[in-house]
Design a protein that fits this description.
By secondary structure, this protein is mainly beta. Helix content is 9%, strand content 32%. Bound molecules: 2-acetamido-2-deoxy-beta-D-glucopyranose (NAG).
Length: 364
């Protein structure tokens, strides 16, 4: 029997007002009811109590995030100590993307046979409320020495990715500290608890999509190049405006559109239907990639992301002032001469209808 008052006080460094009682019955390492995985580290409010999101990536894999990236997932289960997402046929494994700086390795979900991340469900007291909760204590990376822990490290778009920190390691990446976290089982009905439906984002591996983007460009060049003039000619500023003119290949620039962080409409992504992140991102890469998947709108963001959709809410309509373009000032990872959105701002393009005049929005 653990004295929970003492435990919580130690963990949170704060006094608690009640004590939860730890059951003495052990918990089997199979949890058949659906749950969400919550991340806790009471001394790190930036990650504390956020939920694990899954992001579909190439080959059926799912990458794991907390923060704005990925899709909230309500139907995880535990099978022999391994976190499973049965609908997607994937389970949590560790492997790949080893970091020389902090010696961490990626935790993600796949249907392949990579060595699993093994957890043991354990009763504990919630560090904030002292309520009884079931934690998933990290046991080991399969076939590796026991120990280590799971941590979350800052990655793109203000989110954190899940990593494995090996036993005995002391290395820290000062620019991207991997914060040690506890995973907690939050039982659900298996259904989203809010009425907001989020589209499943898809992401392709960088290597496969890079080659396909150039081939898909040709299918979209149906508009007349003679009608394309950049809006810079109609403004009093000198030099071109800070966006990439793609009218000659059949895309009009609509402006710099806000993501959810800059709106109060309660919705998630401005273009939620598909996403790719790439070291070779550029605006034409993105428009081609979205067109090849049948989407009308394409937007680059955060230097390296490309988002697609067929519609966006009026609350996400970009402004038409020249000043508004300043928010989309992140250089593209694949072309430093272009801007690819900003911090939760999209450089937004529309695929012009075949045969129609294709002009950029005029910014004044
Ligand atoms: C919170 O994260 C820090 C940094 O990784 C770690 O030292 C600390 O042990 C963590 N606290 C808990 C309760 O996991």
């Amino acid at each position: 029997m653990i004295n929970c008052r003492t435990l919580s006080a130690l963990l949170a460094g704060a006094a608690v007002t009640s004590a939860c009682t730890i059951p003495t019955t052990p918990i089997p390492n199979n949890i058949a009811y659906p749950f969400r995985a919550q991340v806790q580290n009471a001394s790190r409010p930036e990650v504390h109590n956020l939920y694990m999101n899954l992001l579909e990536v190439g080959g059926g894999d799912r990458h794991l995030f907390i923060g704005p990236v990925g899709t909230p997932t309500y139907d995880l289960t535990l099978v022999d100590g391994v976190i499973n997402h049965v609908p997607a046929g994937v389970r949590a494994v560790i492997g790949g993307e080893f970091s020389e700086i902090d010696h961490t390795t990626k935790l993600f979900m796949t249907g392949r046979g990579d060595p699993r991340a093994i957890f043991q469900p354990t009763y504990a007291c919630n560090p904030d409320t002292d309520a009884l909760q079931i934690e998933l204590r990290f046991v080991m990376w399969q076939n590796q020495p026991a120990g280590g822990w799971i941590c979350v490290r800052p990655t793109f778009d203000n989110s954190y990715e899940f990593r494995y920190y090996p036993p005995g390691n002391t290395l820290v990446d000062v620019n991207r500290e991997c914060i040690k976290v506890t995973l907690v089982v939050i039982p659900t009905t298996g259904l989203p608890q809010s009425s907001t439906t989020l589209s499943t984002s898809t992401i392709s591996s960088t290597s496969t999509s890079t080659s396909s983007s150039s081939t898909s460009t040709s299918s979209s060049t149906s508009t007349s190049t003679s009608t394309s003039t950049t809006s810079s000619t109609s403004t009093p500023t000198t030099g071109p405006l800070p966006f990439t003119d793609l009218t000659s290949s059949g895309y009009r620039f609509l402006g710099c559109a806000p993501e959810e962080r800059w709106t109060t409409d309660g919705a998630f992504r401005t273009l939620p239907d598909a996403v790719i992140s790439s070291d070779t991102m550029a605006n034409a890469f993105c428009t081609s990639w979205c067109t090849a998947r049948g989407y009308k709108y394409a937007g680059t963001e955060w230097s390296r992301e490309c988002w697609c959709g067929n519609a966006f809410a009026p609350t996400r309509q970009p402004a038409t002032t020249i000043a508004s373009l300043a928010k989309c000032n992140y250089k593209c990872t694949g072309d430093q001469s272009q801007n690819c959105g900003g911090d939760a701002w999209l450089s937004l393009y529309e695929h012009c209808a075949a045969g129609a005049t294709c002009n950029n929005v005029v910014f004044t």
